[in-house]
């Protein structure tokens, strides 16, 4: 098969043309690899493009240096990756590899010129394809067929792929949520391999797990996939509570389907209390902002709800106006998503937070001189302003002060 899609043609920037010429001159093969091929075959413009080549890192360095091309970020070099910068564009190019030793977290590699061997060490069939710069597809494990039928399968034997890097369990879930059409369409032997190897996730760093888990939480079939994590004994190894509230999770994931929630908003529905947020943080090293959002939702999801009557938003507005914390408005937006209040969310997002119209200076002009009296008077006026739904202006409030 040969791909000629507009998304593919659009990749041929002056930078890529120059790179292609250099490799061609030296008779090194260069192909697009992995996720970018999957995206192009799905009609999506890839965000990142990885290239694979038969040239070794030393050969690439020699070739680029001779051509006066700038090389940046040499961190990937021991894994076979060289990053070249041409025409204001970075090109990440990796030598074909074979895993020599794997410990479930890292691999020791040696270089090869065998495309099949490199494809064999990749995780999923849909991620194991290569695309020549002439549009020719190189597909050793029926990845294109799986992509068309929306099937997620490991390359070769699932257990072997998982034992090379246990994080692949979560990558399986992530791509299932991205590509599969319906929940529950798994091969039984894949689920069995995941269950038997779930414990391996205990040795994976929290940061790596959180990167994958966040993507799962924002993908499709999230309720099905998280329920499956509990069924397959994965939850306990990735910081989720042993007795997660799966009923609440099912309800909330339905509520927020079209509301673009933050991952933490979705995940908090599993939690019964603040200890669950703390334990998640200990395991996954979530950010301070994520932790604070989780604690906020756990604390306020039940009592901070809409008012009955003509002003349903008032409790949220009052809470925001009384709050002394930063980012309270964005936390309230997430709470409204959690509660499935789509209309109120729109209104709250459009509500311009009013500023209190009276200052201590205004009170001094009226003859109130002591600092203590000014503080008390401002607090009383604030309460009146709040009762008016934040509508009273300076004059109305000051005339109110005379009555008080």
TrEMBL record:
Keywords on record: Magnesium, Metal-binding, Nucleotide-binding, Nucleotidyltransferase, RNA-binding, Transferase, tRNA processing
SUPFAM superfamilies: Nucleotidyltransferase, Poly A polymerase C-terminal region-like
Superkingdom: Eukaryota
Keyword Iron among UniProt keywords: no
UniProt KW 4Fe-4S keyword: no
GO MF: metal ion binding; nucleotide binding; nucleotidyltransferase activity; tRNA binding
One Pfam family named in its UniProt record: PolyA_pol_RNAbd
Cofactor(s) it depends on: Mg(2+)
GO CC annotations on file: mitochondrion
Residue span, Poly A polymerase head domain: 30-153
GO biological process: mitochondrial tRNA 3'-end processing; tRNA 3'-terminal CCA addition
Residue intervals of the tRNA nucleotidyltransferase/poly(A) polymerase RNA and SrmB- binding domain: 187-238
Family, per entry: Belongs to the tRNA nucleotidyltransferase/poly(A) polymerase family.
Name used for this protein in its record: TRNT1 nucleotidyltransferase
């Amino acid at each position: 098969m040969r791909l000629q899609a507009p998304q593919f043609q659009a990749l041929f920037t002056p930078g890529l043309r120059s790179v292609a010429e250099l490799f061609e001159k030296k008779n090194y093969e260069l192909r697009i690899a992995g996720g970018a091929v999957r995206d192009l075959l799905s009609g999506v413009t890839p965000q990142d493009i990885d290239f694979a080549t038969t040239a070794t890192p030393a050969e690439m360095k020699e070739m680029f240096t001779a051509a006066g091309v700038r090389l940046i970020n040499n961190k990937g070099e021991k894994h076979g990756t060289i990053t070249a910068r041409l025409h204001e564009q970075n090109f990440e190019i990796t030598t074909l590899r074979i895993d020599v030793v794997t410990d479930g977290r890292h691999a020791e590699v040696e270089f090869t010129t065998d495309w099949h061997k490199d494809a064999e060490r990749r995780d999923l069939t849909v991620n194991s394809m290569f695309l020549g710069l002439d549009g020719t597809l190189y597909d050793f494990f029926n990845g294109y067929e799986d992509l068309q039928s929306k099937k997620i399968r490991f390359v070769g034997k699932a257990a072997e792929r998982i034992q090379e890097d246990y994080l692949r369990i979560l990558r399986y879930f992530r791509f299932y949520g991205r590509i599969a059409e319906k929940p529950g369409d798994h091969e039984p032997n894949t689920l069995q391999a995941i269950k038997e190897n779930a414990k391996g996730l205990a040795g994976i760093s929290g940061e790596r797990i959180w990167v994958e888990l966040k993507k799962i939480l924002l993908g499709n079939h999230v309720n099905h996939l998280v329920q499956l994590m509990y069924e397959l004994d994965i939850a306990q190894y990735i910081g989720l509570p042993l007795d997660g509230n799966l009923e609440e999770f099912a309800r909330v994931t339905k509520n927020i389907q079209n509301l673009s929630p933050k991952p933490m908003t979705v995940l908090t529905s599993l939690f019964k209390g603040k200890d669950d947020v703390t334990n998640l943080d200990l395991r996954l090293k979530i950010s301070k902002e994520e932790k604070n959002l989780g604690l906020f939702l756990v604390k306020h999801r039940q009592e901070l709800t809409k008012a009955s009557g003509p002003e349903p938003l008032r409790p949220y507005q009052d809470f925001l106006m009384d709050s002394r914390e930063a980012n309270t408005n964005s936390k309230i937006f997430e709470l409204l998503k959690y509660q499935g209040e789509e209309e109120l969310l729109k209104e709250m997002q459009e509500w311009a937070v009013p500023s209190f119209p009276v200052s201590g200076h205004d009170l001094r002009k009226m003859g109130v001189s002591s600092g203590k009296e000014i503080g008390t008077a401002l607090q009383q006026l604030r309460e009146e302003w709040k009762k008016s739904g934040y509508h009273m202006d300076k004059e109305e409030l000051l005339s109110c002060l005379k009555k008080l």
